[in-house]
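quick one, two chains, predict together pls
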Amino acid sequence: MDGTKLVHMANQIAAFFAAEPDRNVAIEGVATHLKRFWEPRMRREILAMVDSGQVKGMHELVLAALQGHRQNLQPAP
Amino acid sequence: MYSNKVLDHGTKAQESATQVTLQIDGSNVTVPAGTSLMRAAVDKGVKIPKLCATDSLDAFGSCRLCIVEVEGRRGFPASCTTPCENGMKVKTQSKKLAELRRGVMELYISDHPLDCLTCPANGNCELQDMAGVTGLREVRYGYDGENHLTGEKDTSNPYFTFDATKCIVCSRCVRACEEIQGTFALTVQGRGFDSKIAPGPTDFMSSECVSCGACVQACPTATLMEKSIYDQGQPDHAVVTTCAYCGVGCAFRAEMKGNEVVRMVPHKDGKANHGHSCVKGRFAFGYATHKDRLKTPMIRRKITDPWQEVSWEEAFAYAASEIQRIQKQYGRTSVGGITSSRCTNEETFLVQKLVRAAFGNNNVDTCARVCHSPTGYGLKQTLGESAGTQDFDSVDHTDCIIVIGANPTDGHPVFASRMKRRLRGRPGTEGAGLIVIDPRRIDLVRTPHVEAEFHLQLKPGANVAVLNALAHVIVTEGLAKEDYIAQRCDVGEYAKWRTFIALPKNSPEALENDTGVPAAQIRGAARLFASAPNGAIYYGLGVTEHSQGSTTVMAIANLAMVTGNIGRTGVGVNPLRGQNNVQGSCDMGSFPHELPGYRHVSDASTRALFQAAWGRPIDSEPGLRIPNMFDAAVDGSFKALYVQGEDIAQSDPDTQHVQKALEALECLIVQDIFLNETAKYAHVLLPGSSFLEKDGTFTNAERRISPVRKVMPPLAGLADWEVTVAFAAALGYQMPYSHPSEIMDEIARLTPTFTGVSYAKLDKLGSIQWPCNAGAPDGTPVMHENEFVRGKGRFFITEFLATEERTSRKFPLILTTGRILSQYNVGAQTRRTENKVWHDQDVLEIHPHDAELRGIKHGELVALHSRKGDTALRAVVTERMQPGVVYTTFHHPESGVNVVTTENSDWATNCPEYKVTAVQVTAHAKKSEWQKDYESFSSSQEGFLPGTATRGETN
């Protein structure tokens, strides 16, 4: 999957939840959305980007969601 | 006119808490107050002769045939215009009445051609019937006097004729055009003997007529008559079924001779359309027997190979072996399927079942992805259910209507007529207020006897800003329905939202630059909507097809909740669905994250239910959405796709990316009635069946499940549901249904909102609005009545974020796309009917200022460029557009409109942002490179078909 496109999509999700005044709620909103609507290969790809440090241009809420909810977001092998 | 087998009550039914009792021909009859004598008589089984009356129109009282005697009253009142009163004694037959009626008929017949035996209405003519009923035996005046028998026949409309020689000037057609359709295209010209019906100073085709057929329906003679009746004669039997075009879901009588449809007549008892129709449903059914229909399964190894005709068994075996090979080689999730909103509930249910149970993954999606997926998401989040809240009838009780991002007169014409009736009001009743929020001046803004109080002509992409500004005014001016909110909504979330929406940045003044709408207009509109006793919001794809589509749906729900406008008749949030079964295909579990009934695949108890019923494990992870499938195909991890009844190569955005994805597939299985654009990339072609060839159900925009009934055998031998069953069997998965009713029984067993639905109940009730279960055995016209489905309604903060698609010096205009009345979606059906006379190509609407700047003349071929690609279209210079915005449709594949649209999509659902593309338009164009390539590719693919052997009979 095109990593740039995935980051763009994730950033859009984060931009919606960024309006939430409570940052933790916003981070959880992003993580829950990714978990409920992204097919495993998409999540796997964007998590791999985080693992390899390709986080340039990634919304800080996306990064926080991927790092903070990693276990929940990591698809089964 | 209706078949004379259909009972005509003469005047409309009345609703009243008061009942009146009277005597008709010596028998007592009790009816609601306001009922006409004519209707009361019919209720009692007594037919009174009539010509100008019909039960779809207000009583008129002009023909003087329906006169009766009322004891104690002088004269002979017309029974159609005389209301029943307690104690009345009415005689419908007497020597004097017979004499008078015969006299009336004598006058009519003295000026009517006596060609009954060769008249197309022979056997189904009200004038003929009345001549018989009144016992007319002679015409004392002779036939040589001044008459109208030399009038010209107007055959300009492709579907019906107007034969002035047969006209009795009863004005039923004129009144139908006004009262039912609301177009006011017809008039009675002249006075007295010179009176004649005319579509203005021109012929029908050049007039304002929209060919809805209401006049044809109302005509009691052969004056306005379907050409198919001229050609084929009167039908001899009829089957009630549901239209396969837009999301209104009109009920029709398919009137037949043998297996041939002679005409489609809107069904009077249809609860979605109440006997009305549009040019598509009423007339454009000829595609079903068009010569291009695919009739034989075909396969090929590569898309550069000619097609090879095979048996159904060979086709299924090949398709199954390819799916199995690919899954073995690339993995379980390398394949998927797409269900169709043009197919029945039962068929979409089966395709998602096949993907989930036989493919073993959740890679199933539907065309709602590219239209109303944000509706599903946004309404589920805020209200708790992914559906509109009302029935269509609710609009009759609305005091103020917001139409946002919808063009109902083109996209949902039958409902638009209903809405216009409410907007016009009735004598003594004020019409509803109207606020239109749309970048274009759609017809509804100003149409006969309807004018929007406010047209908020916003910039494309500014929906959220406008909705936030409206809500800001309501909250800051103390117009919020705080009691309703306190009782019905999550007050904590409301408090958060209220703080947000009251911020100065959300005021109409602060957002004026973003919206392009003067702040005073937004303030006025907000006050109008908030102060209406009943306010309703209707919306379409101009809401959903944006990068903030889901946010906009949530903002609409916020606006409805803050004004207390959910949970009763006359209010609500009403998504106008594009295709006939968009609601149904979503209900049936077509989304990759949801099982039928909108239950997430991660829910273990729901999965357990389906696993037990289907005997296969259900994946707990969401599958790929359509745009994700394309990306994965290009990436190489998605290799096979089964597409039932959709044309993603034409309808989806960024065509060149879609083409690349389709070319990357190792196996594309397309099931369709035509060689559509997607099928040109296919390896397996499975002939589909039209809505006339199968049983099933469609669910319309008001959650109404309506029966689809087989009126002719499938041209290729199998109905679509049978194809999916056989394909699954070839994959080793048995779905042993003998009839679609058994599929619905399974849906009912597995889906809480459908537990009360069955074919038997549909036969009894005609149609059912879900939820239909123990709590609502006859269905649910209005949702969220006592509480929201999610419990408390939830406000969401909807920050306005401008789309990333910005104009620039290179691309200074915004392109927005949409639909037109005469064509439907990708046009595969309507392009193969006479509807093409209204729209034989997609055109580019451009404001005169923008045209002049570029030296563009009306009708000229112009080039349309975006960062994604180029195409060329003919320009229509019109002030419907605002400067800076251009518009086109996507009904013709060669237009290549989606070559220009981008990959941008809604943040929550990936619904494409069709409505905002930065473009440039230049004059003096030639066909684009893509168009030339398309012509060449398309021509070679059509050449790969095995000739006439695969084609049906010419229609």
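The mean pLDDT of chain A is 97.
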